Every structure is written in structure tokens, then in C-alpha cells.
Amino acid sequence: MYKLDINFLKDREPETLDQGVSAPIADSQFLIGGGAVALVALAIVGGIYFYLQSQVNSLQAELGQLTTKESALDAQLKVLAGSEAEVKAAEARTQTLASLITKDIPTSVVLQDIRVRTPETIQVFTIAESGKNLTITGQSTGFDEANDFLLVLQKSPYLDPTKTKLVSAKQKPPVKGVNITLVDYQITTSLTDTTTDKLVADLQKSDAQGAVSRVKLLQEKGVVAQ
Which pLDDT tens digit goes with each residue over 22-40? Predict the structure, then answer.
């Protein structure tokens, strides 16, 4: 008896290994698409970079222009500051001159005012001046007359009433054959602090034309108020 061996596996052709190595079509398309997206992204980033760079350059140019304008303005401000300082210095000199003109009342005006205010019952022997202070000495026909003279002097626009005082009044020894009582008096006073530009009306009454003219000139120039 014969034994028949049949090998079905032996007759099959082995499959080629190349079929398992080839790249799928879908993966190739994905790689191509990814590269295109990367290129587009790079192009967008590059465009943004150049745009931003142009904006930076533009801002730097504007900043340079502003810096130039700022330097010019600083120079103009320095010129104006110098001019302002010169103007203030000139104004200070003018005010100093004006204060010298208006500060002191002319001595002749004060003496004339005292002369006009002196009644017949009063004799003025001396008027001593020390700065702004005055000392008046003389004789009166009585104590009341000396007090009245004090009150008259306190009304003078050129004297400080609070500093005008009767510091002494002494009766002289009686003289035979003379029925008049004589009193030696001494009055101290001080010139007023009021400037001449505030005393124009009084200076006009005292006929102090020189002082009035100087004050009016300063008023016309706007140095002192009218």
C-alpha cells in the first residue's frame, strides 16, 4: 500500500517583503501639507517682523524729531529766562529808585509845615534833626499853650502822631514888671512812614511843587500807583 503525502504550504508563493516597506499615501500628503503650513507661518512671521521693524524705525525717527524740537524749546526757554531775569532786575532797580524818591519827605516841607502851625503864643528856638526824629525846643506863654501846640503838631500829615510828645515843660522864674508866665518846653516827634506818593494832596497844599512833580512823573510811568 502506498502512502500519499500532500504539502499544501509548499506550493504557495512567499509574499514579497517590499509590500510592508512602502510609505502610505496619507502620510506623504500630511508631510506635504505640514511643510506648506510651516512655510506660510514663516512668511507671516517674517511679514510681522518687517512690519514691526518699520514701525520701530518710524517711531525712532519721530523720537529724533521730538528730541530736536525739545532741544530748540529748551534753548528758547533759557533765552526767555534770561530776559525775564533782566526785566526783574530792571524792575527792582526802578522800585529802589522810586522808594528813594518817595520815602523821604523834604526837610523844607516839614519845617514850613511846623512854621505854619506855630501860634503867636509859641516861640520855637531850635529844631534838631537826627534821622527821622525831631526835637523842638522853645517857650510858650503857659502850660496850656504848650499842650495846644503839641495837639496841633500831632495833626501834621508829615509827623507821626503817636511819636509826637511833650517831654518837658518848666515854668521860668517870674520877671519883675512882666505879668506873662513863660514856660520852657521840649517836644519830640518823628517823621511819618507814609510815602510822598500818598501825600500828594498835602504836598500841593504845602506848595512843594518839586516833590509833587517827581511823584506825578513816577505815577505816569506806572512805577507807583495813583
Answer: 545 555 555 565 566 666 6
- Transcribe 2-45 into DSSP letters: ------TTTTSPPPPGGGGTSPPHHHHHHHHHHHHHHHHHHHHH
Contacts of 149 (CB under 8 A, 6+ apart): 117, 118, 119, 122, 140, 185, 187
Whether residue 202 contacts residue 159, with contact meaning beta carbons closer than 8 Å, is answered with no
Q: Please say whether the beta carbons of 197 and 103 come within 8 A.
A: no
- The conformation of residue 172, written as its DSSP 8-state character, comes to P
- Rounded Cα gap, residues 153 and 9, in angstroms: 158
HEC letters along 180-206? CCCEEEEEEEEECCCCHHHCHHHHHHC
Evaluate whether the domain defined by 107-194 bears CATH number 3.30.1360.100. Answer: yes
* 152/181: higher pLDDT: 152
